[in-house]
Amino acid sequence: MSNEYRLKAIKEIASENAGANLPAAPANIDFYGEDVFNAEAMRAYLPKDICKKLFATIDDGAPLDPSIAGEVAHAMKKWAIDRGATHFTHWFQPLTGSTAEKHDSFLEPEDGKAILAFSGKNLIVGEPDASSFPSGGLRSTFEARGYTAWDPTSPAFIKRHGNGATLCIPTAFCSYTGEALDKKTPLLRSIQALQKSADRLMGLFGVAQQKVTVTLGAEQEYFLIDKRFYLQRPDLYQAGRTLFGAAPAKHQQMEDHYFGSIPARIINFMNDVEKELWKLGIPAKTRHNEVAPAQFEPQHADYGSAPPGR
Fold first, then answer.
1. Which residue in 90, 183, 249, 294 is deepest, having the highest Cβ count within 10 Å?
2. What is the β-pairing status of strands 164-175 and 113-116?
């Protein structure tokens, strides 16, 4: 990093104002989960009998009744359109360390005009090209075929961008022969294995079988770097990590990192992130500094009380 640009960035950052404190006003979290097709939205958009069958799959682990797919797809489309979405995607986690999505619009031409449509088949299964995803040598590129399958235990949600919104449908991603090509499929299989073992154990004690719920209190530590510094570090934006540099001027001499006061710019960033997480029904609960300089951490409530699969 050029020292000239570094000093210029420091000067600009030092002259910035984090903004005035907001005036006192009642806190409002009525927007929590507003972009999630959750139980409340299902009850509002689905007939009672369809809703009951879907809840049996989500809450009790009953096999999904294929006959309800059309009704669920129509309700999900209506809810998404009411919230500004024009496209949908099967959203999954391939073995790349990131997420993947291919957007399709609800638009369907009909007699020279256009309608908004979304079928049960669109909801349940997709066939994206899997040639660009790691396979661990499971198949040759010319044989690449991946299938996405709707996971009803993970609620659909709206992903917003600058001038629109997309309905994201959480899915599993696997090959034609059933090999897992993502991170969700092994998770779902492990939950099934745990359920099977728990059923056997409860049977030995004469206890009625119940659905096993997996809980996880997620922590996501991160480093926050000003964009002006970031763009002067090819190692960060090319490799996503530090490849060269020097030790920080200040380590833990005062041991004041962890519970130290959170800087104003950082707390503003945290507030913005938490609001977006809450809209998606993700219960961001705790925030604090971490041990290293410029390191921070949010913590979420356990996934036993949060939308699964996030």
1. 90
2. unpaired
